[in-house]
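Why predict the complex rather than its parts? Because the way molecules touch one another can change local conformation, and only a joint prediction can capture that. The input here totals 252 residues.
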Amino acid sequence: MSLRSPLGRVLGLGSAKDGTGHWWAQRVSSIGLLLLGTWFLLSLLQLESFTYPSVAAFVAEPWNAILMILMVGTIAYHSKLGIQVVIEDYVSGSALKISMLLLSSFAHVLVAFAAAYSILMISLGAGA
Amino acid sequence: MSNQNRPQSPHFTIYRWPLSMTLSILHRMTGVALSVGLIALMVWLLAIASGETAYVELQGQVQTIYGRLLLIGWSFAFFFHLSNGVRHLVWDTGAGFEKSQAQISSYLVIISTVVLTLAYWLAL
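Output of the joint prediction:
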């Protein structure tokens, strides 16, 4: 006889108070990055040069800007999940651990938004 | 729970070091390195958004020997994390857990990383 409640069974949460959500999100974002990262590196190969006009024109292209924003967001998400585990594994003491987890979360959101905003500036500025 | 004298179970120092353990550690290390790489990507995008002066200044830094070494290091980290990440996705299906298979996939990851990194820089 199981002592678990039907709700507990459905949620799939054990004593860790956490389910497979983190693991699953890491896999889904990894497949996204497999595609977006490959696209980005192949695109860089096709650039005729890394001079300012060439690079700015590349980022300004609508589909390039859209995919780059998606890529930067997915990298930040995947990275946030990964760094979270590293902190949980190596930092002991809940005050320091929670502080570092918070700092990491905020830093990832900051970097993602700064990168996305830059892409929008390059892309929208080019049309003006 | 702070008794330092408790006996410890045999830790990794007692085993002959397997290749897959090196790759496991490298996966985490390259992951952290690539997280720092995201900051570099952001700086690159901010420089382009700031205009030609800022971009040329950053290009000057990238052209130095340190800049090039960093880029090569990040590309190596990317291709390793990608190759070993695919290995993890295969493991997630329940396949490839036998010792001999893990040994073979370790070598495949190393070969793939070296080939992809070299091929990328030769193609660039």
